[in-house]
Amino acid sequence: MTTAGTTPLRIGLLGTGPWARNTQAPALAAHPGVELSGVWGRRAEAADALAAAHGTRAYTGEEGIDALLETSDAVAFALPPDVQAPLAVRAAEAGCHLLMDKPVATTVAGARAVAGAAEKAGVASVVFCTLRFAPETAAWIAEQAAVDGWFTARAQWLGSLYAEGSTSEYADSPWRREKGGLWDVGPHALSVLIPVLGDVEHLTAARGPADTTHLILRHSSGASSTVTLGLSAPPGAAGVEIEFRGERGTASIPGWDGAETAFRGAVDALAEAVRTGVPHACDARFGLHLTELLVAAETQAQAQA
Predict the structure, then answer these.
(1) pTM of the predicted structure, to 2 decimals
(2) Could you tell me which of 112, 99, 113, 82 has the C-alpha nearest to residue 272?
(3) pLDDT tens, 32-49?
(4) How far apart are CA 205 and CA 300, in angstroms?
(5) DSSP 8-state assignment for residue 93
């Protein structure tokens, strides 16, 4: 139930996969302002193992979702996007604040349902776009957003998740394999470009090798940007680069200290939104907008197949 004054904030975790095990559960369990109120999983043995590792209670089944929501002020999601979306609606309707993974959903209807439910219930929401919450990159984005005169930008996010010889456990994710880099890492790139250059007013998308997608964006500031996204690059070609160019020269994004640190920042942002009632910039409405852009890009790219 929603209790904005509760200390610590009780956050339940939905999901038991690699992302939950490696990032979310450790971050929530170690956060001084959070009580990990429970872990829900579709497989009882996975929920039991993850809950036991972090000293909390395991839940499973449909009744387990309701029980976890009842004992939580907020819920964090480590689930495929189109599983996450209806459960986020359910959580909002139960009065729980939402800490969602990106993308919120892979359909506009699904993302719109989440944003509408959060607004109707009056719950806070945060979508975890890593670079907006890692301390190093969050400060850098804010610094660039305060500067006028940007002319253009370039973002390249290439992973080797599906390269030959990859042993990453994230490669077993069916939704990532189906949707590719556009949907998995596209939200990260867009979450940096939009606050600095303004909203996307025009978008052109084209397919590259394997799952690679190229975007050309025109922003409300008048600046343009190019984006390259993929998960199938050779290991030697993988990497993340984001660069702005303008009247004051060039600015390149710094490195950051991993996903767990960034996720703690997202927890802090949710807690602040709960405390103040002021929506965070990366809330469910922003998540809806990201889905709208990604659907438009996917539709264009598929039309070229």
Answers:
(1) 0.95
(2) 99
(3) 999 999 999 999 999 999
(4) 6
(5) H
